[in-house]
Amino acid sequence: MMPFVKTQHAILITLLLMPALLTVLPAEFKALAPEDRTTGPLNGDVVLQCQLVPALNAQSMTVVWKQEGVQVHQYTPGSSNQNHGGKTQLFQEELKTGNVSLRLTNLWVSDQGKYTCSVWVDDWYSEAYVTLEVIAVGSTPLITVNEPQGSGLTLTCMSVKWLPQPELIWTDGKGEDMSAKAETTAKKDTEELFSLTSRLDISPQTEGGVYYQCLIRHKQGQVTQQSRVQLSGEYFSNVSASWKTGGIILILSVLALLPGVVVLIMRNRR
Description:
Helices cover 22% and strands 39% of the residues. It has helices at 2-24, 233-269; strands spanning 30-32, 38-41, 46-48, 51-53, 62-67, 70-76, 79-82, 88-90, 102-104, 113-121, 124-135, 142-145, 153-162, 167-171, 182-188, 194-202, 211-217, 224-230. The chain has two domains: 31-135, Immunoglobulin-like; 142-235, Immunoglobulins (Immunoglobulin-like). It starts with a helix and ends with a helix. By secondary structure, the protein is of the alpha+beta class. The strands form five sheets. Strands 2-11-10-5-6-7 form a six-stranded mixed sheet, with no helix packed on it. Strands 12-13-16-15 form a four-stranded antiparallel sheet, with no helix packed on it. Residues 1-23 form the signal peptide. The chain crosses the membrane at residues 246-266. Keywords: Disulfide bond, Glycoprotein, Immunoglobulin domain, Membrane, Signal, Transmembrane, Transmembrane helix.
């Protein structure tokens, strides 16, 4: 009879201690992050999302964030090491709900890339990946009208400080895309930001509309900058007339000099 009583006591003690054991022994969990890439503004802040599922208390776990394999932040129970120039931090109060997201401040171009969120406790480990893209919106395009080419003109559109490399689109007054007729170049500056220059030759005989618009946007299409210029028909007429007048003056000047040239040649022959 005694062995049976001891067995009952053992079962009872186990049941009483079960809640305490469950709070000490960590359950299995998984670190999850958004599948879509995260974007953040140049010189601004961004949060790289990473959440434990189920939402366990991560205060007793080790959390490590790496960028392209290089550690940028590590949290161990009781301390938080910021080893990325003071640019990184976790949300300490939200660790208890499994939020192990990383806050990045004062974003640089070099902060772009693939990040790994790693969490482990005892023998259990999980990681998730976040891709960060830094965005910079460049200056409002500046359109200038350059020296005439024949009876037409050359429009130049310039804008600086873009990231990533944007696309530049020319349209005329009818809304027709004229980008294929333009010559556009993009260059990186010392800050790894893009500057764009585009030249478009226009002619009143072949191109319609008096409005010409230069639009620059990120290829995702979420941010745009644009400018436009208005050219009247009189402007083209004046351009053509000035070239015609200049040509007539040049011809008359040559004719005026011609007798003197003939006399000089005759004297040299004598």
